[in-house]
Write a structure and sequence with these properties.
The protein has helices spanning about 5-10, 20-25, 40-70, 75-105, 130-135. It is mostly helical.
Length: about 140
């Protein structure tokens, strides 16, 4: 939302910080995590920072939309605010999933409970029990 100094003076309020001021805050990236290659770490950091930035910008947008919806009481504004809420929720879940995937990359040898069998070979004997007994006794005339 725009800050209008005349309105701030009229209503005796302090100006709200703009999103440009919030963007000036220093970005602190996490320390390099052991177990990830440099490319994986760079990709993780980029994806994490992108998701976090989207969440912060989405929250600012949501605040503005909720204020607009309250002022106008238009159903479409409430619908859009609800969609932004859903998108923010999904983005937060994506951020958590990114953390889980990075953890899995760091510890690839750890056994997972749902591990799938790659190849399974079944040996089937088609014969009678007499044939099986002869084969087990290594008899030649099967």
């Amino acid at each position: 939302m725009k800050n209008i100094p005349e309105l701030d003076a009229l209503f005796n309020t302090e100006p709200m910080p703009s999103s440009a001021e919030e963007a000036k805050l220093p970005v602190v990236l996490p320390q390099s995590k052991p177990g990830l290659s440099d490319d994986q770490q760079d990709d993780f950091d980029l994806a994490r920072e992108t998701l976090r930035s989207l969440i912060h910008k989405g929250q600012n947008t949501l605040d503005d939309l909720v204020e607009l919806a309250k002022n106008s009481e238009h159903p479409r504004n409430y619908e859009v605010a609800g969609q932004i809420m859903k998108t923010l929720s999904d983005t937060a879940k994506d951020l958590l999933e990114l953390q889980k995937r990075a953890q899995a990359l760091k510890q690839p040898d750890e056994v997972t409970p749902n591990k799938q069998i790659g190849t399974q070979n079944n040996i089937v004997f088609t014969g009678s029990t007499t044939d099986l007994m002869k084969m087990l006794r290594n008899e030649k005339d099967i």
